[in-house]
Specification:
The chain is of the alpha/beta class. Helix content is 41%, strand content 16%. β5, α7 and β6 form a beta-alpha-beta unit. The two termini are 36 Å apart. Bound molecules: ligand 7TS.
């Protein structure tokens, strides 16, 4: 798979080894073209105009929703609400369902490997309502400890929020088992953070059997600023709006307002139609490659990086074995600070992430302040692994002996 030629930024920067797709992906030309085409040929405010151009903009926005819903296995496209991304989607569930349903004495469960976007909203909701935040601890190799989950979920649990794939470790969580445990022991809703799964393998919302699923378009070859929340129709219909304003209303009386139907009830204001069109083009591109191909390609590169990094003295790799991870590898090199490592790699044209990856609760449990993280996607190949290894060897040379 050599897709580099499809990505203008990579073509324009021939020496660049982009290994930070877990943060955001690069964009293929066809996505940029689709966005430009919308603005050049169809731009008008959707839902508002009686004239043909506005109808066309509305249709393109609607078709984009249908296409993205189909890609994510959502039978009913009205249950896909566009948001700014995963962060906004999770905040929406917290502010709307959470505020309406969680009360004093209830419990909210999250895992210890959550991104702050799927941790802080629940922590704050619990604090506001006098509820308790319970944390599902991890096994030593960075999986959710399902025995711990069993022991903390009960009738008092109102929400269980967990990621499909960890951004810091690459762990792929066993959604089916998690759902089964939670449903057996409680009436809690299940909120799945799919920011790191939707881009990398086949996600079918209807089969996942969770209540809400959040994702970000910019991590799956789409533009920044558009993602979504998928929810069960009955729940979305019963929830109060998240924001109020234009488009989300049915009737506005002097003293009260009634709400528009789904998905509009949760899409106040002018929608981000051009970026929805861009994301629809991105999922066309991903589908043309094939979900299985994408995951196996990333895993091959990540496993190769794992083998070669493991051979370097002083390297410590976090998370489960490669066969149980997505294309993410998190590591430290002795006592070299990951930021120093990333700076040296940058000098070699290698972009990796260094830091806590917005997972401070996880870093505390790993007993490190930060890790270095390389993440792979469709445009990477073995030359990127080679550059990563050479960069790490160079860092080792610069820092001399590294204490393990
Ligand atoms: N959840 C997970 C699992 C994520 O990886 C991220 C972003 C988010 C939520 C938030 O997504 P956003 O699009 O709303 O910002 N993760 C990362 C990362 O790993 N490095 O930079 C952003």
């Amino acid at each position: 798979m050599n897709r580099r030629a499809d990505f203008p930024l990579l073509v324009n920067n021939p020496g660049l080894h982009y290994l930070d797709s877990a943060a955001t992906s690069q964009k293929p030309k066809l996505v940029l073209d689709a966005i430009r085409d919308f603005y050049e040929n169809s731009n008008a405010n959707p839902h508002r105009g009686a004239y043909a151009l506005s109808v066309e903009a509305t249709e393109r926005y609607c078709c984009a929703r249908e296409r993205i819903a189909q890609f994510l296995g959502v039978g009913d496209p009205s249950c896909l609400v566009f948001t700014r991304g995963t962060t906004e989607s999770l905040n929406l569930v917290g502010a709307s369902w959470g505020r309406a349903n969680v009360k004093s004495g209830d419990e909210v469960v999250v895992s210890a490997m959550e991104h702050h976007a799927n941790f802080v909203p629940w922590q704050q909701l619990a604090a506001e309502k006098g509820a308790k935040l319970r944390i599902c601890e991890l096994t030593t190799d960075g999986r959710m400890d399902l025995d711990c989950l069993r022991s903390i979920v009960g009738r008092q649990t109102k929400i269980v929020a967990f990621n499909h794939v960890s951004n810091a470790l690459g762990t792929i969580n066993p959604v089916r088992e998690i759902v089964q445990i939670v449903r057996e022991k409680s009436g809690a809703i299940l909120v799945c953070d799919g920011a790191q799964s939707a881009p990398h393998f086949r996600v079918n919302f209807d089969e996942l059997d969770v209540d809400f699923f959040a994702f970000s378009g910019h991590k799956m070859l789409g533009p920044m600023g558009l993602g979504g929340l998928i929810g069960r129709r009955a729940m979305l219909e019963a929830m109060p709006p998240y924001q109020t304003g234009g488009d989300m209303i049915e009737f506005v009386y002097d003293d009260r307002t009634t709400w528009n139907v789904l998905p509009h009830k949760f899409e106040a204001g002018t929608p981000n139609a051009a970026d929805a069109v861009g994301l629809a083009a991105a999922v066309d591109y991903l589908d043309a490659i094939g979900a299985d191909q994408i995951l196996s390609h990333e895993r091959r590169l990540m496993a190769s990086a794992q083998t070669r990094l493991s051979a370097i003295e002083g390297i410590r790799i976090f998370g489960p074995p490669p066969a149980e991870r997505s294309g993410v590898i998190s590591f430290v090199l002795g006592d070299v600070h990951p930021h120093d490592l990333a700076t040296i790699l940058d000098g070699q044209g290698v972009c990796i992430r260094a830091g806590h990856h917005c997972c401070q609760p996880l870093m505390r449990r790993l007993d490190v302040a930060a890790t270095a993280r390389a993440s792979f996607y469709v445009y990477n190949d073995e030359s990127d692994v080679e550059a990563l290894i050479n960069g790490v060897l160079k860092a080792k040379e610069i820092f001399g002996h590294v204490a393990a």
